[in-house]
TrEMBL record:
Record organism: Labrys wisconsinensis
Name of the protein described by the UniProt record: Phosphoglycerate dehydrogenase-like enzyme
InterPro entries xref list: D-2-hydroxyacid_DH, D-isomer_2_OHA_DH_cat_dom, D-isomer_DH_CS, D-isomer_DH_CS1, D-isomer_DH_NAD-bd, NAD(P)-bd_dom_sf
Keyword terms, alphabetized: Amino-acid biosynthesis, NAD, Oxidoreductase
SUPFAM superfamilies: Formate/glycerate dehydrogenase catalytic domain-like (SSF52283), NAD(P)-binding Rossmann-fold domains (SSF51735)
Family classification: Belongs to the D-isomer specific 2-hydroxyacid dehydrogenase family.
Length: 315
């Protein structure tokens, strides 16, 4: 009997997001709703499975884990890339790794949800009303403020379009961005220092790589206005976490709105859980019904193709 594990189904949504009946008729499917962080415990959990379904980068599968799973033959990943999988190690062991398409709307939509929530103090105002109170703050205006975008690709360009609609000045920078590409997205190319100094809202939309890791560090945060907010819905390690915590504790910047972190799930005692000037969500940028239907629907297709020995959309 083929055994398939579905990992990190936090909401219990995997089996409801697609029709798994054809897979379950041919294989055992075990869904795990919790997260296992310890590699040894993860190996123990996965030892009896032929295939593993991973949701984005929630559970890393490095070479040190893969080499201890001799039964594993197939990894069904979601999205078009997964930096937490050692693809070379998987291929060397004859493990097939499949991919799915990805919806592009989730991250930019959450970016704006966080910006609005921070600008208008929505968590505090809602909590006050629920507790029997009334207004507790004065909101910031987006119109006339400066939206600074670090990374103007598919997601950053969508964020820029909304910023223009709100009457914001939109500036952008990334290592390979040209003035022509910025203008095409409705933004003005500036250098990195100018981006940081002029930002009222600095939002990051870069792919994590060795070149981009820590691209916002202590020196960069020091250039920002005390009234500025940093928004990160891309990847936690793009920002030096220790430097950000320090800047927030000293109120060197007004606040941070974060959906991604160096370690996920975020440890219970992490400063981001207690700092009053942090608005944090648990990496839900891509967690939408449409995205889950696409991810799990194509995961089912990939599993059936693997079971049939048919061509697969590989990563």
């Amino acid at each position: 009997m083929i055994e398939i594990a579905v990992l990190d189904d936090y909401q219990g949504a995997a089996l409801d997001s697609a029709d798994w009946s054809a897979v379950r008729a041919r294989a055992g499917v075990t869904v795990f709703r919790d997260h296992v962080d310890d590699p040894a415990a993860l190996v123990q959990r996965l030892a009896g499975f032929d295939a593993v379904c991973v949701m984005r980068e929630r559970t890393p599968l490095p070479a040190a884990v893969l080499e201890r799973l001799p039964r594993l033959r197939f990894i069904a990943s979601t999205g078009t890339r997964n930096a937490s999988l050692d693809l070379a190690a998987a291929r060397a062991r004859g493990i097939i790794v499949s991919a799915t398409r990805s919806a592009a709307n989730g991250a930019p939509e959450l970016t704006w949800a966080l910006i609005h929530a921070a600008a208008r103090h929505i968590p505090a105002e809602a909590a006050s009303l629920r507790a029997g109170g009334w207004q507790v703050g004065v909101g910031a205006d987006l119109a006339g403020s400066t939206l600074a975008i670090m990374g103007l690709g598919a997601i950053g360009s969508r964020v820029a379009a909304v910023g223009r609609a709100f009457g914001m000045t939109v500036i952008a920078w990334s290592q390979n961005l040209t003035a022509e590409a910025a203008a095409a997205a409705g933004a003005v190319l500036v250098d990195k220092a100018t981006l940081l100094r002029e930002a009222d809202w600095l939002t990051i939309h870069l792919v994590l790589s060795e070149r981009s890791r820590g691209i916002v560090g202590a020196g960069d945060l020091a250039l920002m206005k005390p009234s500025a907010w940093l928004i990160n819905t891309s990847r936690g390690p793009l920002v030096d976490e220790a430097a950000l915590v320090d800047a927030l504790e000293r109120r060197a910047i007004a606040g941070a709105a974060l959906d991604v972190f160096d370690r996920e799930p975020l440890p219970p005692a992490h400063p981001f859980r207690r700092l009053a000037n942090v608005l944090a969500t648990p990496h839900v940028g891509f967690v939408t019904r449409r995205t889950y239907a696409l991810f799990y629907g194509e995961t089912v297709e990939n599993l059936l193709a693997w079971l049939d020995g048919a061509p697969i959309r590989v990563m």
